[in-house]
Design brief:
Layout lengths: L2 H17 L9 H27 L7 H20 L4 H25 L1 H8 L1
Amino acid sequence: MAASAGRFYFGRLDASLSGDLPHNTHAETAYLWMSLVVELRALWVYNLYQKALNEANSSLSLRGIIAEEDNHLVDMVARLNEIGFAPDAALPAACATEKKLFEKLFAALQNERPALTALAS
């Protein structure tokens, strides 16, 4: 679904986040920074999905995945701080960039919705 929009999202996000890093950055920083920002979005999606499951009285639960993601975020922040990158200071700008890119990706996904509905029938 929306493969080119997905590639655009990840490519532009990676370029933006990596481009904002100082040149003398630790080798792990770009990977951890990109992963942190993407996992914040994933956590948002998991929580929305869990809310929908709850409203539908589904027995399916994402609570374990959500807890695991929360722990992973804590670990990534700790490692970034350990290698000298302060994610808290850079996070608002990174999230603003990610949000703009995600909105474009989401619009592309919505445009494919009629095709998916046709496939399902």
